[in-house]
Structure formats: structure tokens, C-alpha cells
Amino acid sequence: MVTQDLALDRELLYKGIGKIIVEFQFIEHEVADVLATLLQMHHPTDVHRITAAMSYAQKVDLMCDLHPDRHNPLWPPVDIKATRDALKAAEEFRNTVTHSFWYVSGADATWMRTKANLRSKNRLTLVTGKVNLDALVEGAQALTVIRDWYLGQTGKIVDATIDLRSLAKALNFDSSSE
Questions:
Q1: pLDDT tens column, 4-13
Q2: Is residue 166 one of the residues assigned to a domain?
Q3: Strands of 110-120's sheet, edge to edge?
């Protein structure tokens, strides 16, 4: 989907990154909302308290631990293992996108992405490659599916999780490590 127009590609890039960030915020809010319910917190600001007090991973872990025993019996059945996997994949994909550096480079003025990592054997690794706008758009769509994890549509959630993991790899496709 990359075009020959840098300005158009910039708008598509910004739109894709923005949609990923907003979709992930919805996912995090839904986790906090369900967690507040499971903890029998009833004040309207309790969801925000949970969001402010806990990391995303902490919220996911606690919500997944409490859900099987405390969920409302009227809620749709949820495969908690698939849900946890999907929620973790959502964060990993979001982190891949938001913790990257996006820029124009080269003689052909191409949009590029670089992701740095210092956790790999205590050495800096850089993954650099051409921007894959399709992966951003498809990733945002997969996050939209995962956002509705609480509806109990396990098949859709599993497919979206597989897609997210594949799309994270696609962002690194045609890349070089240093």
C-alpha cells in the first residue's frame, strides 16, 4: 500500500499508528472495566483508578485469574487462556508500533521504521526496514476484534491473535539487524 507520494504515505502512517493506539486504549479500558466489576468496585471512577494504579500486564493477569470464579453468570462464556494470549499479543503489537522510530530515508526517500532493543544478550540490536502500511491497517483491525474479547467469540479472538503475531513479523520483514 506504500505509494510514491510521501505526504500521502505520511498521512496513512499517522492514521494507522493512531488507530492502533486508540484501539489498544479501548482494550485496556475494557480489561480495567471487567476487573473493576470482578473486584466489586462500583464507583464510576474505579476503572480509572485501576488503569492508573496497575500496569497493563498486571490488569490482564489479575482479571484472567479472577474471571473464572467471579464472572457474572449472564456474561458470555470466555476462553480465558485464549483471552490472555490475545490481550498479551495486543500489547506486544502496540509496543512494536509505538516504540519504533518512523522516518524517511535513502535516495528514493522511503518511509522506514527502526526498532531498538537493548535486552538482547545485553547488546543493542536495531531492526530496520521499509514501512509496511498494510500491516498497520490490518493490525488495527485485529485489535478491533480483540477489543471485544468479553463477548466470548473465541474463534475470532484466536484468529486475530494469530494475525497480530504475523503482522508484527511483517513489520520486521525485509529488515536488517545490526
A1: 688 888 899 9
A2: yes
A3: 101-105, 110-120, 123-130, 175-177
SS (H, E, C) the chain: CCCCCHHHHHHHHHHHHHHHHHHHHHHHHHHHHHHHHHCCCCCCCHHHHHHHHCCHHHHHHHHHHHHHHHCCCCCCCCCHHHHHHHHHHHHHHHHHHHCCEEEEECCCCEEEEEEEEEEECCEEEEEEEECCHHHHHHHHHHHHHHHCHHHCCHHHHHHHHHHHHHHHHHHCCCEEEC
Residue at 25 is within a domain? yes
User: Which pLDDT tens digit goes with each residue over 95-127?
Assistant: 999 999 999 988 888 889 999 888 767 788 888
pTM of the full structure: 0.90
Structural domain total, the chain: 1
Give domain status of residue 156, yes or no.
yes
1 found inside a domain: no
Q: What domain range includes position 141?
A: 6-177
Q: Residues near 83 by Cβ (< 8 Å), separated by ≥ 6?
A: 64, 67, 149, 157
